[in-house]
Description:
By secondary structure, this protein is α/β, with parallel strands linked by helices. The chain folds into two domains: about 5-155 and about 230-270, Vaccinia Virus protein VP39 (Rossmann fold); about 160-220, no CATH class. The chain has eleven helices and seven strands. It has helices at about 15-20, 25-40, 60-65, 80-90, 110, 130-140, 160-170, 175-195, 200-210, 215-220, 230-240, and strands at about 50, 70-75, 95-100, 115-120, 140-150, 245-250, 260-270. Strands 3-2-1-4-5-7-6 form a seven-stranded mixed sheet, sandwiched between helices. It is globular, with a radius of gyration of 18 Å.
Amino acid sequence: MTDLTHRDTHFAFGANGANFALAIDEDRIREAVNSLRDLVGGDLEGQNFFDIGCGSGLSALAALRLGVARLRVCDLYETAVATTRALLDRHARDAAWSADVASVFDLDPHRDGVYDVVHSWGVLHHTGDMARAIRTAAALVAPQGRCVLAIYQRTPACGFWRWEKRLYSRAPAWLAVGLRGLYKTAFCAGFIARGRNPWRYIAAYQRNRGMRWSNDVHDWLGGYPYESATIEDLDTLMMGLGFKRERLLPVARSRGWLGSWCNQYVYHRLPPS
């Protein structure tokens, strides 16, 4: 049986993050800062922040803009770490930060320390063992600290998408291009059928997330391994680890035929009883 925690079974997110990083400007940075502020409920002045799965580095830069005193980031892919270093060198050269290549499964609080905020946005459901990845991330949270996660909402179509992602992640370039075109057409048609304007949605998506929709389509179609969770699933897991949910930014429930979106969570580590 294939061990899906091994990197050679994964979709290569790092290359797409590097492509997106070329489009990062002050407008996208500002929107990313606003998005992170809305999620955590304010600034992060003086806090230590660990971003697991840094991707393009945009969330890391947003954390620095919100006043983080010390930033650490890691990613499974050398390309992502290099992209993040380049972005932070360009926009936060004098800040206290470090970036290294590491799997979440290699992290250990006894060696790596603990942090006021451990953040992982849309990453841990792609590790091949989501529950273990969440437990590992949560162990890095300091007493009274927070664990900030974005995890795909479970839908009836998740089984189909797991199959599709496995196909796309192994597809030749010509087939991947065709699948992206098919998905984008179906996505826009679905919006129009419900009386909604897909182009307005895409513009708002990019404005609110600070991310390019076309890049996220590529990541969505290829994001293998793939797991998802209900809000109740995640609450149960985190409560068992000594956390209480502080904030939730939920997505609308859907059948999932156009995909799933991430519920965003902030969990607070409870003091020992």
